[in-house]
Amino acid sequence: MKSCMPLTERRRFERRTIKLAVSFSLENKTGSSYWYLGWICNAGLGGICVDIHRQHKSIVLQRSQHIKLLCSLDFEKTVISEELVRINGRIAWYDRHKGRFGMQYI
């Protein structure tokens, strides 16, 4: 699994490595957009890091853009189940080349 941790830690809160399937939708001027797939690769009290599924690597994210995530807290499953958790946030950073982004909770 790819590491989402930067070489120099700048976060206020520690992150824990996890692997959870996630769906996410970006808010635009007309409301929410298409739902994309990815994996949460680490999470902490301040936010999460998401690896974008390879079929969606061409999307463009903007810093401070609002985002909605749906994920299951069932660590045994690799797909999203019926018991979903909704998470609202904003894009804190985006690495287009690695296909991942950080999200800050709001």
Fraction in beta strands: over 45%
Terminal CA distance reads 27 Å
The rounded Rg comes to 13 Å
Mean pLDDT: 83
Class inferred from helices and paired strands: mainly beta
Categorize the overall geometry: globular
| Number of separate helices | 0
| N-to-C SSE string, H for helix and E for strand | EEEEEE
Please report the total strand number as a whole number: 6
Low-confidence stretches: none
CATH class bucket: Mainly Beta
- Strand order, main sheet: write it out: 1-2-3-6-5-4
Please name the fourth-level CATH homologous superfamily.
Answer: predicted glycosyltransferase like domains
For the largest beta-sheet, the strand count, sense and barrel status come to: 6 strands, antiparallel, barrel
Q: CATH topology, what is it called?
A: Thrombin, subunit H
In short:
With 106 residues, this protein is an all-beta fold. The protein is built from no helices and six strands. The chain has a single domain, classed as Thrombin, subunit H (Beta Barrel), CATH 2.40.10.220.
